[in-house]
Amino acid sequence: MSTIALTVRDLRVELDPSGIEIDDEVSFELEAGEVLGLVGESASGKTTAATALLNFQRRGARIAGGSVNVAGSDVFELGKSQLRHLRGGEISYVPQDPGSALNPALRIGTQLREVLEEHGFGSSDAERRERVEEMMAEVLLPSDREFLRRYPHQLSGGQQQRVVLAMAFACRPKVIVLDEPTTGLDVTTQAHVLSTLRDLAKAHGVAAVYVTHDLAVVAELADRIAVMYAGRIVERGPSHDLFNGASHPYTRGLLAAIPVIEGRRALQGIPGYAPRPGRRPPGCAFQPRCSYAVDRCETEMPPETSVSPTHLVRCWRAVEIGAIVSVASDTNESALVGGGQEALLQVKNLTAWYGTREILHDVDITLRARECLAVVGESGSGKTTLSRCIAGLHAFKMTGDIEFQGAPLARHARSRPVPIRRSIQYVFQNPYSSLHPRKTIAQILRQPLDIFFDLDRTQREERLAELLELVSLEGSLLRRYPDQLSGGERQRVAIARALAADPIVLVCDEVTSWLDVSVQASIVELLVRLQQEIGLCMLFVTHNLALIRSIAFEVAVMSEGRVVEYGPTDQVLADPQASYTRSLLADTPTIKGVLSGG
Amino acid sequence: MPPLLKVIVRRTLLGLLTLLLVSIVVFAATQALPSDTARAILGREATPERLTALREQLGLNRPAIVQYGSWLGGVATGDLGDSLVAKQPVTALISGRVRNSAALVLVAALISVPLALFLGSLSGLLRDRGFDTVVSLGSLTLAALPEFVVGILLILLLATQVFHIFPAVTLLDPQVSVFAQLKILVLPSLTLVLAVAPYIVRTLRASMIEVLESDYIQMARLKGMSERTVLGRHALPNAVVPAIQVIALNLAWLAGGVVVVEYLFNYPGIGSALMDAVSTRDLPVIQAITLLIAGLYVIFNLVADILTILVSPRLRTGLQ
Q: Which residues of A497-531 are buried (b: 16+ CB within 10 A; e: fewer)?
């Protein structure tokens, strides 16, 4: 028999004191033992909604309406001590970044025990100690004295997240809210945390709300999905219905943006970006980015309507759109070409140190003209060091050779001749820190032009316009500053800055890891187009194995400073030889399993 | 050797090196003072012969480097030399003064540090409420006023014009312990408290606000911890860490800042002793007192660094 563990009705959260809505009309319910995937990109209000379930808001926001019912009590009606009893007792929370959510000054044993003590779990210290051991065993961590006496910084990211999971399950709650708990973890660690969570939720009949920006992560985990956009749930229903009959244009867009590891698919981004609270348009908030929009969408907010008894969609054209063939199973092949081009840049026996530690061992890779080589690895695999060595940015000792167009490359970018420096350009991971905050976009883009080319005023302005067009940005952005741009726009500017030098090789270091999935897809689209249109040679460094099929002809898989597998992408993904590649593949989340007929 | 001990030894050695450098600067500065000791002692009427004789007698005609060497040798063996003016050992001359100043600084520190910690953390906790506004405004105002202005205002308020509770000048009975004459200590130490506390209050308020906004405090609240546990166990220990350095700097400042306040209240401590010594060019006394103040700076900073390491697990466990 199923019991409802969590009911949310018309939840509204506002900015305080302006009263601008962050979330509104958020409703859903969840049965014991079920997992709900609450999916949304940045500015969708998903984290705000998640903490509201525990009647908590950070400074500057306030719960303004609706009700949340956990295990029979209305969370918003509780007094202070009742609320305290509820939090951590009946409903618990797992935060995004366990590294900052664990108190740096307290031993993890103390932090685990205090939950039990505060909620009066167990009648004696011995009993509580036993429970701590039990919890640690459930999350697959040791529970000996030495381990419990460690401080958070003495654990790895994955271990920290397990400690927080143990804490959340400590008092056997009815509901658990997880806010992007695996962001920042490697795929292997993420897979372990996800399976632990799934097992615990099923074993103890806990209802879990799993907040994420990545549909692929929850595809295999969630029984139900709710997709949020601009503070509202735009589509919700059983996982299977949602993946196979997505009826909101945004959900469809998200699905098309997810890289699929099994089939080489051209990724499609959603143009534009999600509006922040206070900047949301009237009518349907998604309408400016929507290719299905009609006049009505600009003025009237669509209500939730059901396309089936359990599947609700907030779109005027839901029924029509739902009838169109599912996007997720649609695998239009991307037109990546490659193979047989001449070697442009060769890395031979590269060994590099960081301080006194050797972190790259005997690496050999070859970049071919007009092709993209993906370097895939988890954190600490040495992939960024490799790309920095190629770009001449590695500051420590290195041995081996890097040859460019048949001639050896100087170690440091500074000692490379100008034409060589111009030929190899770098795009950094974080577009929020790689652009000079006090310069306009025009100034940022003009700099490489002034350094490398002798252009007169008109030529320069022409080139600027050309560059913007190449990365699909509007000319009006030139006068703006980086902080007035969205993350995706910033990364486009960073790419345009690299292209301004008219490079032959473009090194892309995790360029999509800071971006939303829909934006990531459009950046990948752009990079693929650049390969085809201007014949760029690319080194695409990433931790996301699923991405590479859409962009790279060849792949080098790195682990612990070595290339463990190297070959054409299709071949490596279809028939991986190294055991490391196999386990990486198995741990990468995919939406394949939930698609019927895909 | 345990890692912490290694740090302490290394820092102590560095501290000694600092003191050595300070002693050179102090010695050079006293040499550069205009006028000379012999003339200061003998007065304007002195004949050149008598001046030469006195310089000879005091060893002032030796090369500076030799004078420095013999002074440093003395310091190392605990002999600070003889006062040129009072003709008695510097140690005997200033020991009473050091005790008086120590009493003043101790009282000021014992009041200001706990008070500032309390006001600062409460103010951070009640951010933007009435109490916080008052404390913030008050501490900013006090921080902006030089301590002699604060001292004069206190004298006007509590000693001469409005109330007549405490004496405006200090008439210490040298036969009795300072602590038996508490009434005399009140105004000078209150001045020091008001000079020092605002900085600590402001630092603690800022770090308390930062800590309260942190993810681990949110987590503690979402775990259902009582407000008392959230503040006492999770927030305060983290908020105090940045304040330790500020407290140490302020205590060290107290040791030097006492000069102005002692002069203002005519309090017989090292401050007034230093003033007298400067006016009579009593080089050994100047050197002894400045070195003492410098030594206190070094010690307070050393203690603060070690305390910071002890209360920050990341630093403590990261020791090699």
A: bbbbbbbbbbbbbbbbebbbbbbbbbbbbbbbebb
